[in-house]
Amino acid sequence: MKAFRLGLTGSIGMGKSTTTAMFSAAGIPVWDADAAVHRLYAPGGKGAAALANAFPEAVSDKGVSRETLKSLLSADPSRLAGLESLIHPLVADDRAQFLTSAASDIVLLDVPLLFEKGIDAECDATLLVTAPPGLQRARVLARPGMTEAQLDLILSRQMPDHEKRARATHIVETLSIDSTRAYVLALIVHLREGMAAENA
């Protein structure tokens, strides 16, 4: 039986990583888009080979330097499309392999740009992880080295939270660890009950 695909997303500082970890702890296999990119950029990774010609400055025997890539893209944002055309197919392959191998009735796809890249179309339902703007800013600005300007730049590249709310199937506000965990466990039960009813 094909696993139910739940796509999880949320802007920076909303509690996405914490929520994803709760699904994992509950036994739900997780595919993490950021982790997939890290694997591709590792020494000997397919991403390092793919970027060697287009971004030679960023590739060494240590793999791909994300910091160097960021600098190159900041200097010339028009190169982003070229980077994405090389990496996105590899990330899609990685996701497809996960979906083929995951032995579970439900799987979680953790994708920061789920709606922006249209990956929600591959999902059976979506979950938006969110929090009030003031709490979001406080969380992000507490990170080492983060500035207001950096945060504003990151937010400008992400779909506004109110648009994600309009598109998401499910929404969880991460106001506390306990309430978020309770929501995650209840949602898993809800999804399984829905699947059972469909198959009855």
Q: Kindly report how far apart the N and C termini lie.
A: 14 Å
Helix content: 40-55%
Write the CATH architecture name of the largest domain. 3-Layer(aba) Sandwich
**What is the residue-averaged pLDDT?**
92
Query: What is the number of E strands?
Result: 7
Query: Can you tell me the overall shape?
Result: globular
Q: How is the CATH topology of the largest domain named?
A: Rossmann fold
The CATH homologous superfamily name of the largest domain equals: P-loop containing nucleotide triphosphate hydrolases
For the record, the CATH class of the largest domain is: Alpha Beta
Global Rg: 18 Å
Structural class label: alpha/beta
Count of folded domains: 2
Q: pLDDT under 50 segments (min length 5)?
A: none
Helix count, per DSSP? 9
How much of the sequence lies in strands comes to: 5-15%
Major β-sheet annotation: 5 strands, parallel
Strand order of the largest sheet: 2-5-1-6-7
The SSE string, one letter per element, is: EHEHHEEHHEEHHHEH
Short synopsis of the structure:
The protein has 200 residues and is α/β, with parallel strands linked by helices.
Account of the protein in words:
- The chain is an alpha/beta fold and 200 residues long.
- The protein has two domains: 1-29 and 105-200, Rossmann fold, CATH 3.40.50.300; 34-101, no CATH class.
- It has nine helices and seven strands.
- The protein has helices at residues 16-25, 33-41, 46-51, 66-75, 80-101, 133-141, 148-156, 161-167, 177-199, and strands at 4-9, 30-32, 59-60, 63-64, 106-110, 125-130, 170-173.
- The strands form two sheets. The chain has a five-stranded parallel sheet with strand order 2-5-1-6-7, sandwiched between helices.
- β3 and β4 form a beta hairpin.
- The model has no long low-confidence stretch (mean pLDDT 92).
